[in-house]
Design the sequence.
């Protein structure tokens, strides 16, 4: 199940829907490059499983690929931990632009990331 | 024997519905005209269990998961919801499956909208999740895994997800992932919260296990996937696979060994078993039915068939008549065959947009004729269809709904049940919006009334002469007759209001 897998880290609070829209367009982009499975890992102040409310439309729009969605935590420190595990694998982080602490961590840890 | 992985579901699913699959649909509505206990008894009576609390019959999808886990060496079993307490100490993983956990799917959501009352399937599932045994299981750290065709509904019920402590929701065919997930759950390793299994991870035929225990009413799968590509359907996204005859036979034998007399051949389109695209072929269908007839002591049924395939098979090869007269009814073991079919719309325009291949090999412009011809063929061959119509499909116009009404007028002479359903976003349309009460137009109400009159007209004959004619089903037949009388009375009472609404 780990073959053709793209790891996507989504970092959001209130603007999770915007992050999800960007993630969806990236899923289509990466699928064209051969990725058919997407491991979506969420860092959010929204608790588990309520954070999924922001990803509902993303899930409902994906019909052709396999999605694994999991919650990792809420703090910049946890993003740092995650970054060390994932930065050597195919990945992209999408971060809500107002979350500057997380953006700094992503930059410091060498994650590929975009802000929304 | 003790089990650490327990699969279960609530009573509306864990039932054989008196041996009559269609009665299970009654559990998609709230109790109407009778109290809840009687409603539940009609729709979903308790199922026989063995001394361990294992149901003699259980939902087929759960049987597949159970078989996969047993084959992988887990101590897993399906347990009737009334017997979960026996396994509270040993249980480490609790798995729940459902067709409609929260009554958000069709037709439950429609009955909910129309009556304003929660359907009984939702109430029953909630009661199970809030029962002392499930609460205690959660308190002691049991991992809860949910899945099945209605898994997507959890995304819309996150508060229940949180409250009940569900650990993971899995949407899609699970054969390739479930062993790993359950192993992780048993090891206490972190799990994803949600998995959507895409078509690329659908199992091959070889990866689909043979069931170990009997399925509800002897249902056995003959195909997975569907080539028709209707946009409102999730099955069509999956690759098409034909289950080999010897595997189908083995599953029928499992059912018979457990005392189940009938067989329901399950497919989205039974007549497409080893078809040439969407054109049915006589040879594989004759072999399938001969094999099923030989090994099934009771009645055969089809789960679903497409109207286009029925028409094509009969027009080209007289195949429907042959299957019925020479095989299914030949030895007098049964006098009718039940099946679900989809009309969905009477509008060729909408058919072309939403389900361009549903009429194939005939063009969408011929869809109303295809429907009518197929209904005639079924009527002449004692095949009794439960048909669906979908209201509120994306891009539907009032003119489309009028065309559906006109088609219903043409179907009056044919013995059938026709159920209108409100559009629920699934399949390639799963990103579209639900059909809601405030979108109801007079044309929709007209179609709903036509389906009601049609169904009430035929229901009594179907019950008396075919579906519920056995003496042991007399109490069910009486209860349903009372229900029909109540519905007729209720409709007569509210009809002036409805007609005024249509005129506006």
Sequence:
């Amino acid at each position: 199940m780990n073959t053709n897998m793209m790891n996507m880290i989504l970092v959001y609070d209130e603007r999770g829907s915007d992050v999800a829209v960007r993630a969806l367009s990236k899923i289509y982009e990466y699928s064209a490059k051969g990725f058919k499975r997407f491991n979506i890992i969420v860092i959010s102040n929204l608790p588990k499983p309520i954070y999924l409310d922001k990803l509902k439309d993303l899930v409902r729009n994906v019909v052709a690929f396999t999605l694994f969605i999991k919650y990792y935590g809420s703090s910049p420190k946890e993003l740092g931990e995650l970054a060390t595990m994932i930065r050597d694998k195919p990945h992209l982080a999408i971060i809500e632009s107002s979350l500057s602490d997380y953006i700094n961590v992503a930059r410091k840890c060498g994650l590929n990331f975009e802000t929304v | 024997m003790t089990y650490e992985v327990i699969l279960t579901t609530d009573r509306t699913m864990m039932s054989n519905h008196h041996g009559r699959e269609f009665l299970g649909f009654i559990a998609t509505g709230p109790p109407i005209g009778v109290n809840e206990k009687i409603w539940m008894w009609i729709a979903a009576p308790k199922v026989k269990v063995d001394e361990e609390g294992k149901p003699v019959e259980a939902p087929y999808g759960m049987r597949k998961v159970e078989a996969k886990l047993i084959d992988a060496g887990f101590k897993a079993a399906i347990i009737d919801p009334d017997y979960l307490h026996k396994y509270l100490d040993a249980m480490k993983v609790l798995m729940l499956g459902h067709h409609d956990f929260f009554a958000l799917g069709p037709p439950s959501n429609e009955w909910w909208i129309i009556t304003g009352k929660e359907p009984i399937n939702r109430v029953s599932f909630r009661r199970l999740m809030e029962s002392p045994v499930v609460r205690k299981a959660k308190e002691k750290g049991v991992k809860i895994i949910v899945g099945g065709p209605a898994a997507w509904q959890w995304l819309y019920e996150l508060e229940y997800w949180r409250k009940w402590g569900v650990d993971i929701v899995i949407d899609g065919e699970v054969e390739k992932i479930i062993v790993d997930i359950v192993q992780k759950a048993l090891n206490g390793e972190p799990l994803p919260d949600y998995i959507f299994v895409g078509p690329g991870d659908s199992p091959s035929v070889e990866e689909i296990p043979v069931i170990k225990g009997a399925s509800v009413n002897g249902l056995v799968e003959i195909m997975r996937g569907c080539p028709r590509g209707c946009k409102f359907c999730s099955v069509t996204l999956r690759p098409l696979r034909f289950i080999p005859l010897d595997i189908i036979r083995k599953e029928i034998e499992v059912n018979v060994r457990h005392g189940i007399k009938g067989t329901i051949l399950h497919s989205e389109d039974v007549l497409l078993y080893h078809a040439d695209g969407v054109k049915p072929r006589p040879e594989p269908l004759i072999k399938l039915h001969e094999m099923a007839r030989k090994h099934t002591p009771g009645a055969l049924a089809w789960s679903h068939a497409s109207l286009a395939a029925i028409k094509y098979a009969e027009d080209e090869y007289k195949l429907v008549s042959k299957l019925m007269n020479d095989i299914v009814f030949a030895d007098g073991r049964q006098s009718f065959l039940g099946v679900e079919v989809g009309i969905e719309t009477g509008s060729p325009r909408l058919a072309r947009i939403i389900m361009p291949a549903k009429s194939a090999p005939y063009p969408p412009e011929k869809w109303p004729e295809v429907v009518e011809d197929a209904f005639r063929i079924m009527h002449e061959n004692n095949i009794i269809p439960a048909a669906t119509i979908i209201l509120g499909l994306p891009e539907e116009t009032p003119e489309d709904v009028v065309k559906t009404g006109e088609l219903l007028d043409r179907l009056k002479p044919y013995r059938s049940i026709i159920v209108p359903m409100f559009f629920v976003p699934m399949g390639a349309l799963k990103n579209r919006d639900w059909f809601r009460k405030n979108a109801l137009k007079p044309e929709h109400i007209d179609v709903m009334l036509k389906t009601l009159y049609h169904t009430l007209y035929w229901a009594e004959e179907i019950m008396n002469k075919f579906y519920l004619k056995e003496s042991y089903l007399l109490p069910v037949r009486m209860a349903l007759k009372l229900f029909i009388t109540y519905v007729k009375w209720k409709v007569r009472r509210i009809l002036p209001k409805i007609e005024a609404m249509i005129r506006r």
Strands of chain A lie at 5-12, 37-44, 66-73, 91-95, 113-115.
